[in-house]
Amino acid sequence: MLAAGPSVARLGGGKLRLGRTAGPGIPGFVLTAISRRALGHCLRTWSRLYRILFLVAMGACSRESTEPVTRSFASMGTQASVTVAAEYRDRLPELTEAVHEVLRRLEDQLSTYRSDSEISRLAAAAGRFPISVSADTRRILELARRYGELSRGAFDVTVAPLVQLWGFGRRARHSVPDPEVIEDRLRLVNFRSIELQGGSAFLPAGMSLDLGGIGKGFAVDKAVEVLRRSGVRAAMVDLGGNIRVLGQAEPGTSWTIGIRNPFESERVLGVIKLPDGMAVATSGNYERFVEIGGRRYSHIIDPRTGYPVEGMAGVTVVSPDATGSDALSTALFVLGVESGFEVLKDVPGTEALFIRDRDPVELWLTPGMATLFTAVPEYEPAIRVLSAEARK
Q1: pTM of the predicted model as reported, rounded to 2 decimal places
Q2: Contact (CB, 8 A) for 308 and 299
């Protein structure tokens, strides 16, 4: 819609009138009572106006033509979207369908809510026999073991028995589990027990997997691979807040991601500008939790202790791939600021923003994150940049 503004000229001074005339065979609206000079002036004025309106319209169309376009859909139990730069506008439907197909396939393989998925069949066969798995399932289990080692056990996909115990599975919980039961379930948590050989995988008896801290990131990476193979060089894939980008949103403009305040979800703390190929994910205690006896417990379980994590409100990680940002945001949430910062020394190209669960809000940034994150003015005083001294 065009609105009159400073760039739109006003008509004035002409003797042009539009009026209805009497008599048959005469057009309904005609020019009346106007001199040749006035007519010429008015035509020149209208000509100038049309040129201005044309330029304004073309400018609006030009701006619109450079803006990215998005298509959203439901997948893997959450909201997904594919956004592409304007040059790929006409291909958005086919690209979205290609991404959707990849996500459907991975959900069939990795979902714990599908009894016939490879992950569910692996748990059902635990302690009895190995099962054949796809290349993608094998790869995500390899990566899960890698991030388990890297995080010193703070990330562990075999945490599923504890997740179920605390009521984050299919059954709600109304009381805190007994310490003896928690200790018993802890014996079933050990990512090093995942056995992979060729095209098969095996779990010891009683063990099961929860890929909630890595699966969506892995799926985003696979989706981005599809876009790259399709020749797309500027796009963004978002799967429930697990995001990875290619290129730029518009020429000279980075993809920009808003970071919500974990204590006031309708407010934004600031934005992160993502370079080409980078990914971002956030783990927090503000969306999923259980209340037992009037106390709120985070859905993120510390696999080393068996208890929900306390002391952290949110962790955002920027990484070269979405699998890493997904797994590490979970791991750093468990580890906390100091230990998490220590772990990141072994992960090149990865940065983090930590928010402790306390008021007033404090934003603890790794040095690299400080170059990517811009706080809204009211939160600028809350920024703390981590350093060797801050770890002490």
Answers
A1: 0.82
A2: yes
